[in-house]
């Protein structure tokens, strides 16, 4: 069987965890945490990076940092993971969902401005499959209306928009190291702070509402409760695991991109007989090969294809169910139809893509899909 995903281990994870344990300091914000944070600051031009226990937690920190309260509105795509919305709903925000683009699941930047009201506090963009949203247009709308931009860059490590790293453009950004992502730590995440006004408070919220971080830097002579906060930082054991991955990120990325490109080339070689659409990389975006997907013609066809592939030993999976139609939110949604969101929910199919996937596997998968469409 070819699984949909298989977490990749670089080989150093256990060694670094052992070193963390031997150091006698296994709670958070130790050496490995600092190494991981510096990696993001140095490589992706992020002003301040803080490791978190998940991307979900990093998104919840964003909602706290923006003082989101009952009645505030937050604009985001409906084609995303539940945490993108939940983090703001937890603070009482109303979510205003925007549709996806015609040729990409990313938020349609031309639909955003009409959704802005005096209650709008933030726009959350999601770089689906690691592909950049139209950040110039989005930042311009945000600046014009004085609202904040948060990049949900959960899938977007090592991807770029006009040469700028995703996660370095919005006021705040969040990454995920869940085992399904390119770089993993089991569960894990990171908050990127690009707007300096949030740096001091982000450390306080991270450390349970205390100024413990400035105490450790010797900036204050005792630490105490100064603001709201929670326990958002992971232990050194998780950071040690993550460091073993980050050290190998070039290799991991190169391998994924190679497999992604092979899929694309082999599908293109089949040409017109194939009745699916291939992923479009937006013109100003790089490709971090997080997901390789195809777009089937109908939902029924996708279901048949999933079953056919399963019978051939291949696990292919669909992705998000539109949040505006979810059991939890559908009664709260304002009723607008989000055509493209629903198209991607119904027709997008993700194919296996992971470090240890073999080149022969890609060839086999493309061949089976081609056979499905021939019959
Ligand atoms: C994976 C993912 C998340 C959640 O990440 P966790 O680290 O599991 O909390 C949030 N948003 C998007 C777009 C994701 O893909």
Task: Name the descriptors.
single chain; 375 residues; alpha/beta; Aspartate Aminotransferase, domain 2; Aspartate Aminotransferase, domain 1; 2 domains; 7-stranded mixed beta sheet; globular; binds pyridoxal-5'-phosphate
SSE arrangement:
Blueprint: H1 13-22, H2 31-44, E1 48-52, H3 55-65, E2 73-77, H4 82-89, E3 94-98, E4 120-126, H5 135-145, E5 148-152, E6 160-161, E7 164-165, E8 172-176, E9 189-193, H6 199-206, H7 212-216, H8 236-246, H9 249-270, E10 292-295, H10 299-311, H11 339-347, E11 348-351, H12 359-374
Parallel strand pairs: 2-3, 2-4, 4-5, 5-8
Antiparallel strand pairs: 1-9, 6-7, 8-9, 10-11
Helix pairs in contact: 1-8, 2-8, 3-4, 9-12
The structure holds pyridoxal-5'-phosphate.
The site of pyridoxal-5'-phosphate has 14 residues, from helix 3 and helix 4.
Structure, described:
- Helices cover 37% and strands 13% of the residues.
- The radius of gyration is 21 Å and the shape is globular.
- A seven-stranded mixed sheet has the order 1-9-8-5-4-2-3, sandwiched between helices.
- The protein is an alpha/beta fold and 375 residues long.
- The protein has helices at 13-22, 31-44, 55-65, 82-89, 135-145, 199-206, 212-216, 236-246, 249-270, 299-311, 339-347, 359-374; strands at residues 48-52, 73-77, 94-98, 120-126, 148-152, 160-161, 164-165, 172-176, 189-193, 292-295, 348-351.
- It folds into two domains: 13-247, 3-Layer(aba) Sandwich (Aspartate Aminotransferase, domain 2), CATH 3.40.640; 249-374, Aspartate Aminotransferase, domain 1.
- It binds pyridoxal-5'-phosphate (PLP).
- Pyridoxal-5'-phosphate (PLP) binds at residues 54-56, 80-81, 83-84, 126, 152, 154-155, 176, 178, 189.
């Amino acid at each position: 069987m070819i699984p949909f995903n298989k977490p990749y281990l670089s080989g150093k994870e256990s060694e670094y965890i052992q070193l963390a344990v031997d150091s006698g300091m296994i709670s958070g914000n130790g050496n490995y945490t600092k190494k991981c944070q510096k990696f993001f600051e140095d490589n992706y031009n992020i002003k301040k990076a803080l490791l978190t226990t998940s991307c979900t937690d990093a998104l919840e920190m964003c909602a706290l940092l923006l003082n989101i309260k009952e009645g505030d509105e937050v604009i985001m795509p409906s084609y995303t993971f539940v945490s993108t919305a939940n983090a703001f709903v937890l603070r009482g925000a109303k979510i205003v969902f925007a549709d996806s683009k015609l040729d990409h699941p990313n938020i349609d930047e031309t639909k955003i401005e009409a959704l802005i009201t005096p209650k709008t506090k933030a726009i959350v963009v999601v770089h689906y499959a690691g592909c950049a949203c139209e950040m110039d247009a989005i930042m311009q709308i945000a600046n014009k209306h004085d609202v904040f931009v948060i990049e949900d860059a959960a899938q977007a490590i090592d991807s770029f928009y006009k040469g700028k790293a995703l996660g370095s453009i919005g006021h705040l950004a969040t990454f995920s190291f869940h085992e399904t992502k390119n770089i993993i730590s089991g569960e894990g995440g990171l908050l990127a702070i690009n707007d300096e006004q949030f740096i001091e408070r982000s450390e306080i919220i991270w450390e349970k509402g205390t100024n413990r971080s400035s105490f450790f830097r010797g900036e204050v002579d005792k630490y105490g409760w100064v603001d709201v906060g929670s326990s958002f930082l992971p232990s050194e054991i998780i950071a040690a695991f993550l460091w073993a991955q980050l050290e190998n990120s070039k290799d991991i990325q190169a391998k994924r991109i190679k497999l992604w490109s092979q899929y694309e080339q082999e599908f293109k070689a089949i040409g017109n007989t194939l009745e699916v659409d291939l992923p479009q990389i937006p013109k100003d975006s790089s490709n971090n090969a997080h997901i390789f997907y195809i777009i089937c013609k109908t939902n029924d066809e996708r279901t048949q294809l999933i079953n056919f592939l399963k019978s051939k030993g291949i696990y292919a999976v669909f992705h998000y169910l539109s949040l505006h139609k979810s059991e939890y939110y559908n009664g709260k949604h304002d009723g607008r139809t989000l055509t493209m969101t629903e198209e991607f929910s119904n027709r997008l199919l993700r194919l296996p893509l992971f470090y240890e996937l073999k080149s022969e596997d890609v060839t086999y998968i493309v061949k089976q899909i081609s056979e499905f469409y021939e019959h």
